């Protein structure tokens, strides 16, 4: 995770022109709504989601092994599907938000709200498709979805909280 | 009265499990929907007022939305298991 999440970004005034700075500004520049301008800066959502996905793949074998011990091979399959769903959910959410933010602030709000309904619908669809399969355990799938989603978020929040509290002091990998 | 008791014995018990699960999940999705709308609305307002803090606001917004969405996921999983 980089410091881009907390660093100040360029303002929309750079693109639209600051009407207070130039005395010759006309009404066409002052009519631009901030919500119709793209959000400046790096796609922080995508960076967070990539971090979460990396950590999810890191702990996936452990979760699958634990579920296999409790529920058997069906539990392992349920855990694998659950982890895949959670990671895909984060990546799809980030792609929607970051893509919409490049277009405009107002579209970003619509993308978040539409994305919420879309992603819940996709999760519902996947679970309806696999729920009657004999090779999957539903309790393992449900427990994995909840535990992985919350666990990965808490793990990521630890780094983001440090970064927000002390910009520039975020943990970084040591250079070899 | 006797006919009613005969009917009650003959009639099979209705399976309200899927209906109850659907209603429960629908109710569980309302709260997170309101919460996410509130979070994103306030974040957009903050970014429109102070575009230079957009990076920090977007980070907080994304994590807030993800945490709120966890409530909907919990409701969904519970409805799926109870059914």
From TrEMBL, chain B:
UniProt keyword annotation of Transmembrane present: yes
UniProt cross-references to InterPro entries, sorted A to Z: ATP_synth_csu_bac/chlpt, ATP_synth_F0_csu, ATP_synth_F0_csu_DDCD_BS, ATP_synth_F0_csu_sf, ATPase_proteolipid_c-like_dom, F/V-ATP_Csub_sf
Lipid bilayer topology: Multi-pass membrane protein
CDD domains found in the cross-reference section: ATP-synt_Fo_c (cd18121)
Domain V-ATPase proteolipid subunit C-like: 19-81
Database matches in PROSITE patterns: ATPASE_C (PS00605)
Entry keyword set: ATP synthesis, Cell membrane, CF(0), Hydrogen ion transport, Ion transport, Lipid-binding, Membrane, Transmembrane, Transmembrane helix, Transport
Site (Reversibly protonated during proton transport): 69
Superkingdom assignment: Bacteria
TM region(s), chain numbering: 23-41, 62-82
Its job: Key component of the F(0) channel; it plays a direct role in translocation across the membrane. A homomeric c-ring of between 10-14 subunits forms the central stalk rotor element with the F(1) delta and epsilon subunits.
Family to which this protein belongs: Belongs to the ATPase C chain family.
Protein's name according to its UniProt entry: ATP synthase subunit c
Annotated organism of origin: Ilumatobacter fluminis
Gene designation: atpE
